[in-house]
Amino acid sequence: MIKHGFVERDIDPSEVYDLVKELLVKEDFKITSDDQSNSMYEIHAKKSNRERIVLGRVRDVDVVIAGNKGKFEVQLHAGIWGRDMAIPAIEGIATLGIATATELHSGHEFEKRMWEQIVKKIDPTLKICEYDGMLFKTQQELDQHMKAHQQQMAGNGSMMGMGMLGMGMMGMMGMGMMGFGGPGLFI
Predict the structure, then answer these.
(1) Could you tell me which of 53, 54, 64, 67 has the C-alpha nearest to residue 12?
(2) Which of 65, 79, 135, 157 is buried most, with the most CB atoms less than 10 Å from its CB?
């Protein structure tokens, strides 16, 4: 899951909502739930067919946009977690974890691509970290953040394989790639 708050942006959250719906339709997702209230938009969309189940491709997308013009948060989650908890366990057993690992990568890539389009709509000047989707105002801030990623990866070395296995297991247990909670950051 990627989530971030936006302050002092000259865009109404309803415009972000319209963009998200447009992007999902372009990607051939069927919008299964579309709830709107005063200052909150919730969209759930899905694709399901045999190929997606066997190959472990993105099947569910949940987006929540909450707040008002000037201060709002966007949450984006792609994958199969949520209502389809039994399917990843069955896939993991049936494919020895291959589909689940593919799902993690596919979900991350889809989230990344969709997140970039959402952020560019909100503020095209923001810089996006390709690893975690965090946002930065300047290239210098992003470069410092990327250095921290590089140092962490260099320090982890051979532990990378174990970390990826751990993320796969967390995905199977329904925790998602970044779903450890905590409030979204505001930029």
Answers:
(1) 67
(2) 79
